[in-house]
Structure formats: structure tokens, C-alpha cells
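Section 5: illustrative case.
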């Protein structure tokens, strides 16, 4: 991982303040004995989901991601990770029972990298994507991005377009995931900034019902092969970054 000044070794019992967001990164390509150990703390439905993967590498990465999520949550909750129960909203976003804790979380993984985001007071979403230069960015922008985003994309230099696409895509995905509405909220109905060399911004949200939350999107600095972003329903937030292991 890059940017070791940003990513710090986490404490055994991290303290998640009301005005804080914690971001964790972890590698999913870990020894088989660790995969086996993590599989033993998963719920039966998580095991069933893992078994549906055709390739062993994908199955192992899923187990590593879910097991790591449980281990991190166990640190915050001071609770054995295998006893943690998840609930899911109609769009599949996982959460913890509201009667037990105020912690909100989200996770995303691509190839060997996983990101986990935690907040005690705000809705939160995170997304990471592997930067694939072969992806047809122009076609996806034309089909799914807003008019403002299309205009910005066309204005950028050619050597920036691949990174701009993945920066924009992760920012949009993080916002959608934070709202917890899946693709029922169309991607073209809101605009984010695309330029990867400038701070991430939520520019406009086009919806009939006014959302009074002060949404913020922030780019996450990970290794050069990935783009990542987090969205939070508050602008007054302190971010901390933990370099965790599965």
C-alpha cells in the first residue's frame, strides 16, 4: 500500500468518536490458514454466499472481506466477531441492529484490496475499483453519467480520462451506497466532480424530496492501481485511516 503517512497501525480497541469516520484497508490475498480461520467466524448465510463463487480465488477473497469486517466490528463493539448479527435493507445494504449500537458501516473490495468505512453518527458508503485501462469509459459515461459529468469528462485531457472515469465512478458508487437505495436512485440524477487531481465534490442532486443532510464525498488515497472514495452524510467530520490485516 502507498501513502504510509496517511495509513496508520490501528489500536487494539479503536475509539470511534461521534464526529469521526474511520477507513480501514486490508489485503484479501492471505494465507489459506487465515482463510480457514476467518471462515469459522462467518454466519451460515455468508458461507452460503461464499460457496456460490465459481473460482476459489473469488471465494477466498469474499471470506477474507467478510471475516475482516467481523474482526474490525468486534474491536469497536468489544464483542466476539462470530456473534455479530447483520440486518439488510431492501436494497441489500448491511447494518447492525439499531437497538444494539449506533455504528454504521460499509465495505467494498476489488481484486486483492478491501476498504471498510465506519461512522457512529452518519450514513456512510465506500467504493474501491481496480483501474482497468481497457474498460470502455466513454461508453459508460455516455450511458450513465449526468450531463454535467459528461461535459467535464469531455473537457479533460486524454491522458487523464481513465483515472477521471474511475474517480467519478467510485464517488458515485460511494454516494449511492451511503444512501442505501441501490440503483433505485439513478446515477444520472446527481453529479460529482471527476478530476482525480482535485478534491472530490458532490456538485448537485436532482430529486423531488429535499435531502437536508450535508453530504460530503472524499477521495481515498490507496495504491496507484486503484481508485476509491467515501461518502458521508455530514460535512463536519474527522477522518482516520487504519492499515489493518485480516
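Designed sequence:
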Amino acid at each position: 500500500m502507498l501513502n504510509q503517512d496517511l495509513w496508520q497501525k490501528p489500536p487494539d480497541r479503536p475509539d470511534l468518536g461521534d464526529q469521526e469516520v474511520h477507513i480501514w484497508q486490508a489485503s484479501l490475498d492471505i494465507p489459506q490458514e487465515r482463510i480457514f480461520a476467518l471462515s469459522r467466524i462467518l454466519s451460515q448465510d455468508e458461507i452460503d454466499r461464499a460457496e456460490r463463487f465459481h473460482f476459489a480465488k473469488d471465494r477466498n477473497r469474499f471470506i477474507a472481506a467478510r471475516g475482516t469486517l467481523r474482526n474490525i466490528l468486534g474491536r469497536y463493539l468489544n464483542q466476539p466477531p462470530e456473534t455479530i448479527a447483520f440486518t439488510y435493507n431492501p436494497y441489500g445494504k448491511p447494518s447492525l441492529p439499531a437497538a444494539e449500537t449506533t455504528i454504521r458501516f460499509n465495505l467494498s473490495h476489488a481484486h486483492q484490496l478491501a476498504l471498510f468505512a465506519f461512522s457512529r453518527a452518519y450514513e456512510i458508503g465506500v467504493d474501491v475499483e481496480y483501474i482497468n485501462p481497457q474498460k470502455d469509459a466513454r461508453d459508460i459515461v455516455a450511458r450513465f453519467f449526468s450531463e454535467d459529468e459528461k461535459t467535464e469528462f469531455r473537457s479533460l485531457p486524454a491522458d487523464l480520462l481513465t483515472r477521471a472515469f474511475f474517480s467519478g465512478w467510485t464517488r458515485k458508487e460511494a454516494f449511492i451506497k451511503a444512501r442505501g437505495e441501490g440503483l433505485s436512485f439513478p446515477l444520472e440524477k446527481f453529479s460529482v466532480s471527476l478530476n482525480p487531481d482535485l478534491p472530490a465534490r458532490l456538485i448537485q442532486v436532482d430529486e423531488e424530496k429535499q435531502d437536508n443532510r450535508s453530504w460530503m464525498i472524499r477521495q481515498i488515497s490507496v495504491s496507484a492501481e486503484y481508485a476509491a472514495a467515501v461518502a458521508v452524510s455530514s460535512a463536519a467530520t474527522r477522518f482516520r485511516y487504519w492499515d489493518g490485516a485480516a
